[in-house]
Amino acid sequence: MDYIERRYLDDPPTVADLREVLAQLGLEPWDITRTGEPEAKELGMAGWSRTEADREQWIETLASNPKLIQRPIVVTPDGRAVVARDEQSLKSVL
């Protein structure tokens, strides 16, 4: 299968990119946040509210701190997406 690799630290996703991939994943920004990372702990993200009203704050923070995004995220040409943390997740979109 052909693919395009995006090095998210060199080419971080924009707020719009994150909105799109979250829609493809069917997840919320807090679902793809690495809250155990030192940066997330410094920001106190584990205690942030997880409501629709706070969604943009999460997305903007992920765009500014791409290291906090779970990875890898695989997006197929037909728009399906998955956080491919294990082989089964990856197989679900292939």
From TrEMBL:
Q: Which SUPFAM superfamilies match?
A: Thioredoxin-like
Q: Which PROSITE patterns match?
A: ARSC (PS51353)
| Family membership noted in the UniProt record | Belongs to the ArsC family.
Q: Return the PANTHER family for the record.
A: ARSENATE REDUCTASE
Q: What is this protein called?
A: Arsenate reductase
Query: To which species is this protein native?
Result: Nocardia africana
